[in-house]
Design brief:
Elements: H1 2-17, H2 19-38, H3 48-75, H4 78-84, H5 89-114, H6 119-146, H7 150-171, H8 175-181, H9 185-194, H10 203-226
Helix pairs in contact: 1-5, 2-3, 2-5, 3-5, 3-6, 3-7, 3-9, 5-6, 6-7, 6-9, 6-10, 7-8, 7-9
Length: 230
């Protein structure tokens, strides 16, 4: 536990110093606020821009940040020092993931502040945000584990983030894309957000979320075996 807390504190200091890491956590809430205040169209669903940009947030922020952190640690050979200090991969990932997830959820509160959610809706919304961030963090860990540099991590992250971020929006305008998007965790979460006042867990949605998480864990194990962090 002492090692996890030490890594947690180290990452907290580095995050506060690194404006590149902080930017994604500030950018999407800011854009959502501007759009939510300035754009109003007849027939537009309630909290339309809040839900839309929250999906971009839970995809882009966790994936880009965690992938960049791992890739940067590789470049600076920090993992070799940690291995000498007898830090294992589970301790490191527990600290780094919990720290990033906490920042993600702090950012998620800004979306709650923008909307007039009831207590029940707020709890449901934060739960969905947490679930989306967790899956995205696992994807980011896979990318960071496979990457040998921050440039490589960014190159791998960008197309994956773009696909998962924009699928829910594109699915609203194209039936063919919708048929494909319904198998993505971002589409499932966005759909549940749109019906957050009467949210129900459909078996298909639950299966997709569990399957996505399971695949992410399996891919991480394979990635770690081919390129161990510690």
């Amino acid at each position: 536990m002492r090692i996890i807390i030490s890594i947690w504190k180290k990452q907290q200091k580095e995050t506060l110093r690194n404006k590149t890491i902080l930017l994604p956590f500030l950018l999407f809430p800011f854009i959502a606020f501007i759009m939510n205040q300035s754009v109003h169209m007849e027939g537009m669903p309630k909290h339309f821009f809040i839900y839309l940009f929250s999906i971009m947030y839970i995809t882009m922020a966790p994936i880009s940040v965690i992938a960049a952190i791992l890739a940067e640690e590789k470049e600076h050979h920090t993992f070799e020092i940690m291995a000498m200090a007898k830090v294992n991969v589970y301790q490191y990932l527990t600290a780094i993931l919990s720290h990033t997830l906490l920042i993600c959820m702090i950012g998620a509160m800004s979306f709650v502040w923008m909307g007039d959610f009831t207590i029940t809706e707020m709890i449901r919304f934060l739960f969905l945000m947490g679930m989306g961030c967790l899956i995205s963090l696992l994807i980011g860990v896979i990318i960071g584990t496979w990457s040998t540099s921050t440039i490589m991590a960014n190159s791998l992250s960008i197309p994956i983030m773009m696909i998962f971020s924009f699928l829910p929006m594109l699915a609203m305008f194209n039936e063919t894309i919708q048929k494909i998007a319904r198998f993505s965790y971002t589409y499932i979460i966005h759909t549940m957000m749109l019906h957050i006042d009467q949210m129900t867990w459909e078996p298909f949605s639950l299966v997709i979320l569990i399957l996505t998480t399971s695949i992410a864990v399996i891919l991480f194990v394979l990635a770690y075996r081919s390129a161990p962090l510690l």
